[in-house]
Every structure is written in structure tokens, then in C-alpha cells.
């Protein structure tokens, strides 16, 4: 969240992962949606933009196919750290963001 708070941006993979983690950590979908939209609109430069709303809706399965059912996510696409690591260099990303914001 440091990147979005400081720059109004978050890398696409991280943004998808971020929203999927809110789903995982929150007790019901209505609350997740409210939290995701609220944070999206407050911190992202593209908050309140139609594409931004669509990105949040994607986390809930909009424009995606059904996946194997699992606890918490039902048939929504699940994202975990291992899958993220296969597509994205998390360590380099964290180093870049920490350097950018002076940590």
C-alpha cells in the first residue's frame, strides 16, 4: 500500500493481489467491495474512473470465468504469493518502492 499512498499508483499485478487479499481477510463480500472501492477512490489517481471500478469488479469475478470452488473465494480466481512470484519479481518491487519513498 505504500506505493498507492505515496504515488497514487500500484503495479497491476500488485493491485490485483491487493484486492484479492482484502477478499481473503474480510468476512463478507459487501464489506470487501466497500473497502476496495473506498481505498481505490481515495488513493489511486484513476479512482472513480470506469476502468478502475472494472478492476475492482474483476476481483469479484466480472469478465472472468469460474474457477475450482474453494473456501472463502467460492469460484472466484484465487491469487497467492507463489503464483505472484512466478509472474512478478516481488523483492525487486519492494526494494524499488522503499527506495522511492526513502525507507
Structural features, described:
This protein has 103 residues and is mostly helical. The protein has one domain (1-102): DNA Cyclobutane Dipyrimidine Photolyase, subunit A, domain 3 (Orthogonal Bundle). The radius of gyration is 14 Å and the shape is globular. It is built from six helices and no strands. Helix content is 62%, strand content 0%.
Short description:
Helix content is 62%, strand content 0%. It has 103 residues and is mainly alpha-helical.
Going by CATH, the homologous superfamily would be DNA Cyclobutane Dipyrimidine Photolyase, subunit A, domain 3
What is the number of independent domains?
1
CATH architecture: Orthogonal Bundle
Q: In the CATH hierarchy, what is the class?
A: Mainly Alpha
User: How far is it from the N-terminal to the C-terminal residue, by CA?
Assistant: 14 Å
In percent, how helical is the residue content?
A: 55-70%
| Percent in strands | under 5%
Q: From N to C, what is the helix and strand string? A: HHHHHH
Q: What is the fold named in CATH at topology level?
A: DNA Cyclobutane Dipyrimidine Photolyase, subunit A, domain 3
Task: Work out the radius of gyration.
Answer: 14 Å
Mean pLDDT: 94
